[in-house]
Amino acid sequence: MRQLPGRTPHRRARAVVGALATTLIGCAGLTAPTATAAPAPAPAPAARTATTAAPAAPAGGQALTPPMGFNNWNSTHCRADFNEAMVKGIADIFVTKGLKAAGYEYVNLDDCWALPRRDANGRLVPDPARFPNGIKAVADYVHAKGLKFGIYTSAGTKTCNNAGFPGGLGHEYSDARQFADWGVDYLKYDNCYNQGVDAKQRYTTMRDALAATGRPIVYSICEWGENDPWEWAGDLGQLWRTTGDISDTWGSMLSIMKQNLPLAAHAGPGRWNDPDMLEVGNGGMTDTEYRTHFSMWSVMAAPLLIGSDLRKATPETFEILANREVIAVDQDPLGKQGTVVSSEAGRWVVAKEMADGSRAVALFNETGTAQRVATTARAVGLPAAPAYSQRDLWRHETHNTAGTIAATVPAHGTVLLRIAPDPKWSEHPPAVELGLDETPLAEAGKPVTLTGTVRNLGRTPAVRTAVALTGPAGWRVEALSPTASPALPGGRALTTRWRITAPAGTPTGAYDMELTAAYRAPNGNRAASSLPVRAHVAVAPPAGTSALGALPWLSADNGWGPVERDRSNGESAAGDGGPLTIGGTVYAKGLGAHAESAVEFYTAGACERVSALVGLDDETGVRGTVAFEIWADGRRVASSGTLTGAMTARELTADVTGARTVRLVATSAGDGVDSDHADWAEPTLSC
């Protein structure tokens, strides 16, 4: 579903132009390199197994691996800092920071580069304030760096920005000629002000116009997935948008990922599903979430177009964007998009076949707490073997595994592995999996007992294994069982029990702990594994019936802006919503959220019932679809089914007897998160 006006600064506003009812949602453009990333360490080649071939590449041989580069929109929009100096600065950084060497190739302009009017001859005019030396001079500068240059326009009478810059509809051949004369290598062609003309017709005309120039220009069809472009756009261009625009939030990224994953069969060399540009480094997500974003886009063989201002990027951002082992997954020449192996309760396994027969495997945790995510070599399509090598592409470590592929994955995190049968598997230490039986939840001054495990997944024993659990300064951490084993055979686990106590007076909140295991391989080589643990200090809810929206929460994830207390979601700023209103009825108390959303509360095993009136807030009109869910200790115990903006509030009640935590979840109902303003009205907790 499309978003309301102003829904996110990363989208151009939706608008209706007279009787044309033309949607104005901009594409977050992508670039298309043809160079592959530099080779990275990987497991030995696997025996090839039967596979379904990727779709054949179109004639012309462009973008045979997913495009890589930069687009300014997410970081600048139409602000004045989008200009010649910025574009040249990005090209310089590509070279000096090693991004060019890592495979990034295109430096692309998005909307707002032109003046609002064509000249007397119908030609596009670059904005002299932004680009005083013209577009060709910028393209020449980019080319001199050994890079390629991209530009933007729309398959309509105007581009998507509200200023109404000229679009390409009716000017396809003259605009294409102008782009070619400037040295453009890549065109992102948007979908705004399209006058109701058939999408395939509009995009075919520009395809023909680009071909008539004689210059190879990668063609990005930015149609937002409205007319199933994956069914037809492969005959026209090299990539096509599958969704509306991304924004720099966890909920937006997650929703787009879920929409793009089922389209794997349509991707292949020179024809790519495009779930929109990267948000890595823009500040709206954590580094853990950005690593998930980059991992999942790579496993989906998505174009990798940097959307952050690299002149301001942190070392952590460069570390993510320049990870050559992850880039190699995206740029694998076989061109297969990863497919979903399993997705139970927010625990995802997505596997991508690689050209050497190995598999890239993403263990992704959608939920707000650490989860064990597991699969097997056979399940991801590998042949039987005595053992396999397992390369962790973020930790840059290689181990052997007997066939189980598993990890405890942090909230919103992804463990990205490359697995292959390997005759030299015994040269690597065994893979070990660390886990805790539950997330540490403590009340200040009261001890909590936890059980940890270290399981050997390898074929060889883990020798002289020693386990430790560390906590914040001042916390008491006591081992209640042996923490070492002289030899831990493959398939066996060392179980350890721990008692932790947060000092009296410790403020509520989240605290970092770490479970570690040190061991040796049979050849004597040292190895180690660690599991970051997020502990929480909380206060038990009062006895009786409480307004749940007024209680402190453990965590609150929201698809757009913050979760609001006693107000609707509104826009991205805190407190910018209105009274909670569903079907014309105003509610004084509750929570205003936006899918994908999850708000978790500590209930200490002392509560019995959660109840709320749920529905979409009237600020969305009749737009939006949301499914409301109540979870208790990781189990879904109530669901509203799909509700729409045209419905009145529905009562949702759940038995949560004995649960230590309760989570209120609002999902997009599978059709994207646009306009999904989810109200929990008058929620109560009975204890």
Description:
- The structure is a single chain.
- The chain is of the alpha+beta class and 687 residues long.
- 14% of the residues lie in helices and 32% in strands.
- It is built from ten helices and 38 strands.
- The strands form eight sheets. The chain has an eight-stranded parallel β-sheet. Strands 9-10-11-16-13-14 form a six-stranded antiparallel β-sheet, covered by helices on one side. Strands 26, 28, 31, 33, 36 and 38 form a six-stranded antiparallel β-sheet that branches.
- Strand 29 and strand 30 (585-587) form a beta hairpin.
- Helix 5 packs across helix 6, helix 7 (250-260) runs parallel beside helix 8 (287-299) and helix 8 packs parallel to helix 10 (324-330).
- The chain is globular and about 80 Å long.
- Mean pLDDT is 91; it is low at 1-51.
Mind sketching the topology for me?
Elements: E1 68-71, H1 73-76, H2 84-96, H3 99-102, E2 106-108, H4 134-144, E3 148-154, H5 172-182, E4 186-190, H6 199-213, E5 218-221, E6 239-241, H7 250-260, E7 272-274, H8 287-299, E8 304-306, H9 315-321, H10 324-330, E9 339-344, E10 347-353, E11 359-365, E12 371-376, E13 388-392, E14 397-401, E15 404-409, E16 414-421, E17 432-436, E18 441-442, E19 448-456, E20 462-470, E21 476-479, E22 484-488, E23 493-501, E24 509-520, E25 526-537, E26 545-547, E27 555-557, E28 564-565, E29 580-582, E30 585-587, E31 590-594, E32 597-602, E33 609-616, E34 625-632, E35 635-644, E36 650-655, E37 661-667, E38 677-686
Parallel strand pairs: 1-2, 1-8, 2-3, 3-4, 4-5, 5-6, 6-7, 18-25
Antiparallel strand pairs: 9-10, 10-11, 11-16, 12-15, 13-14, 13-16, 17-19, 19-23, 20-22, 20-24, 21-23, 24-25, 26-38, 27-32, 28-31, 29-30, 31-38, 32-37, 33-36, 33-38, 34-35, 34-37
Helix pairs in contact: 5-6, 7-8, 8-9, 8-10
